[in-house]
Write a structure and sequence with these properties.
single chain, alpha+beta
Length: 75
């Protein structure tokens, strides 16, 4: 989990628009930092991604990632 001020520092340091990505949380997710299946990919990442403290990840959630941090569920 990452707090807002740490995230704000990371996002201000990187103004690259390619830093925004979309993915789905792996179906087997139960707790901790989730692995992701990025759009266009078929298998989950090896890396586990941090998320904002205001978001509680759930298996199969579609999420937006900015600068490597999960922002939350999108519909």
């Amino acid at each position: 989990m990452i707090n807002r001020s740490t995230f704000a520092q990371k996002i201000n340091a990187s103004k690259d628009s390619s830093a925004i990505k979309f993915a789905k949380i792996e179906p087997d997710y139960t707790a901790g930092r989730p692995r992701l299946i990025f759009d266009g990919e078929l298998i989950p990442t090896i890396k586990k991604y941090p998320f904002l403290s205001s978001y509680a990840p759930k298996a199969n959630d579609r999420v937006m990632i900015i600068s490597g941090v999960i922002q939350g569920k999108i519909v």
